[in-house]
Design brief:
Number of helices: 20
Mean pLDDT: 84
Structural class: alpha+beta
Strand order of the largest sheet: 13-12-16-15-14-17-18
Low-confidence stretches: 1-15, 100-106
Shape: globular
CATH topology of the largest domain: Glutaredoxin
CATH class of the largest domain: Alpha Beta
Amino acid sequence: MLLMILSTSAQKKRQQVNPTDVVIEGVVLDSNIAAMPGGQTEVSIMVSKYPFCTILMERTENWTDTLKVTSGQSFKFVVPALAGRLYFSLKYTSEKMGDYEFQQRFDYVYILEKGDRIKCTLSDKTFKFSGKGAAKLNCQTEMYKVKMREDEAAVKILQGNDWHKKYEVLNRLLDSVFQVRKKIISNYSQQMGEDMTRIMLANNIGLKYFETMRQARTMASEPQRYQGYLDSKSYTNFEQDSYIAIADDLLAAAPIYTNILFEKIMTQTRITVDGIIEQNFSERHMKSVFEVIKSRPAGIIRSSLIGLFFSQWMDQPSIYDFVEEGLKVTQGDVYKKIVLKIKAKQSEHRAFYPFRLEDANGKIVTLDDLMNKVVIVDFWFTGCSGCIALKKNMEGVWNTYKDNPKVSFVSIAIDKDKTQWKKSILTREYTEPEAINLHTGGLGKSHPMIKALKITSYPKMYLLKGGKITGNIPYPSGADTTKGTTKEFNDLIDKLLN
């Protein structure tokens, strides 16, 4: 198992604080928590030596702890120095509010250094830090709080249909935000030191391109918008900006910079099949991403991108095709360790989770019931726009195999509200009512199956035969079964049926 978590009880046994440990003490002062019966919350921390976004950090060897506290009560974490520089996310949770992680952005990872002694106040307005090492955390908080301001002329263009002009305006607005954040960094520079200042500058570059780069994943059904984005400075200037006069080791230490660099590679390698842009990432796309990373100059940045690549697709069977080459081009023990852990899993039996779930009629359905069929499984939740798009794109697959007794469509919802789930089924937005519609019993994404399959984003789809995952699959592209990834998907099903 790639994720290594130390138990809370084991961590509490750490009586002695070593000079290199990081100590984080604080209090939650949130009126929403205080107003709840009991006023209790859970404060959680996850720490890693890898400069990854939170979702990918979860897939690495990390240190985590959770403490229950009441509003106004102090908490304390003693974090072992996994490395000289650490990356962490901090959040508090309530039953009514759900998770509160500053700005709700999984890319907003804070940076620590061994020996830091941090005091903090957490609220729904902001996170404030003091003590040794606090300057860099307050700098990041202020950077994350800066919002893009649209003037009247910009709003008019952004509401239009000319995507080239829209991205010209967006780039101008994002550059103004970049300059504000740059001034914030300058204000903290003397306290942070030269290296940390440069890391913050690299993160600022990543933040400038964050919004538009992330949105590229949703552009498959909007080719004009996609092309407008590819032609814009919001895309082309990321690695060409004149202010990237920062050493590679410091660029690689900036989590937002490295993650957006990886995102750019994933965007530039998306393939158009018969005029249709792939919306999701196929085995073919994985190979393209790997080849681009491999072609980069040897060094720490290439190694960090290799680490991101293997963390991104570690739960896909085809990832093992890249292990040996990945080990050859990865330098240093830190990132190579990620690849080696995946290699250690290579011989494991790749069986699907042996689920036992209730369908919309209250009947229990198990994986054993479907062993003699080719099974198409998708995971979704109410309100997921990508799930709606996938259901629409599955039309050609559904119409081809809905009456085939050797094929089963299994649609699993992670909605916690059972009534809402049943209503969503009837809308036909997320699934076909005639499919085998299953529910995770109110556990949502905390269900053991979701954790075992390491599903972190939705929709998620698998193709099974004999209860085993067949490998990576091209997500279908629409109703036309004669072209695009719908044809590829159907060809794969036909191959499994023969």
